[in-house]
Design brief:
Two copies of one chain form a homodimer.
Chain A lengths: L2 H8 L3 H10 L6 E4 L2 E3 L2 H15 L4 H12 L5 H10 L11 H6 L3 H10 L8 H15 L6 H20 L6 H45 L1
Antiparallel strand pairs in A: 1-2
Chain lengths: 217, 217
């Protein structure tokens, strides 16, 4: 398709499409003449990916990192996946060089991960995220009890298992793309679902309570 | 304790404590003389709450709403809880008056909630959050399949159940305070745990794969 059709199909303005082409966020089309190029479904998908990540709050510099990793065919898939997820927010407020981060201890996160028997790379940003989140809990006077770790751990594992089971296993670019999109886009779904589950459970409890109170009167 | 001790105990600077007092974010101390007041554990806890919500990105105007709801003893607890959770981010980009929101349809969120058999108030911000999150999925070419709804729904319900089970049921202010803090502060814990569960599962899968490949060679 021509660039005008790509604009019509995706709703991304022409100036933005050209900007993404210049910045390497969108792969070039197939040159058909001195002034024209042809685009296909991979361009439609890439634009959807870029728009989704921008809408999720990623700066374009981070989107570029993700896009380059999706197109990376040289490094081991597991390493590429890890680096792609690292490029997603939240970004650690004090991001340090790998060596310093690796040398640092994350005692709260380690306690949780060891209790759950999980393998982890201490340099992985999610370890720092977990440590920061647990620090914030403590600062507010809450604590992550063993009971909560066990229940959260079991259910989060169930969620992660379906995430991986539904991930396309080939071609390789699809795996990386789906992993990045899935991490970025299902997080707000899960957050909203938890709040709605609270509302549902609380409604049932409070309705029961007011029912019981009426019976006692 | 005197205000200087409150500063020492909490690490919140004196100027900030005075500002919070003026703005009604911190309840006044007990007046002991023309120039002095006495503070206690409730002030320490309130400062921890305010700091935790500010650190989570809440503007002070929203923190004030939460604080007023914690101190609200007149309205039904279920309504107060709902309004307190509403005050937390993310804020819907186009927040409309209640009437308009109530009149609006959220077809994607409704499909999920009806499949899960959950009660919900269509004016609740989390319904809009869920709708927006599902729209973003669709825009990126992903979809929320029934299989994923069922698995996510079951595990999120398990998480919500332990959340409610561990919530203090009295006094009433503690319930509201713990619900707000729990919603705000366990969300990043769960997000980080999901990413780390992905890493753990992926590591096991890829280690198995490379092991199998070596055996085949």
């Amino acid at each position: 398709m021509r660039i005008s059709e790509l604009v019509a199909r995706t709703g991304v303005p022409l100036a933005t499409v050209k900007y993404y082409l210049r910045e390497g966020l969108l792969m070039p089309g197939e040159i058909t003449s001195a002034t024209q190029a042809r685009y296909d479904e991979q361009h439609v998908r890439r634009l959807a990916l870029v728009r989704a990540l921008v809408a999720r709050g990623l700066p374009l510099s981070q989107v570029k990192i993700v896009v380059d990793l999706i197109d990376n065919r040289d490094d081991p898939l597991f390493a590429v996946l890890g680096r792609a997820i690292e490029a997603l927010p939240p970004y650690a407020p004090d991001s340090e060089p790998d060596d310093a981060a690796g040398a640092r201890d994350h005692p709260r996160a380690r306690r949780v991960l060891e209790r759950l028997g999980q393998m982890y790379d201490p340099r992985f940003a999610a370890v720092v995220q977990l440590e920061r989140a647990l620090e914030a809990l403590e600062a507010a006077g809450l604590s992550m009890t063993d009971e909560r770790i066990d229940v959260y751990g079991r259910h989060i594992r169930g969620i992660a298992e379906i995430d991986l089971a539904l991930l396309p296993s080939h071609p390789r670019q699809d795996t990386v793309e789906a992993a990045v999109l899935g991490t970025a886009l299902y997080e707000p779904v899960l957050t909203a679902m938890r709040r709605l589950a609270h509302q549902d459970l609380a409604a049932r409890i409070f309705l029961d309570d007011s029912h019981n109170q009426q019976e006692q009167q």
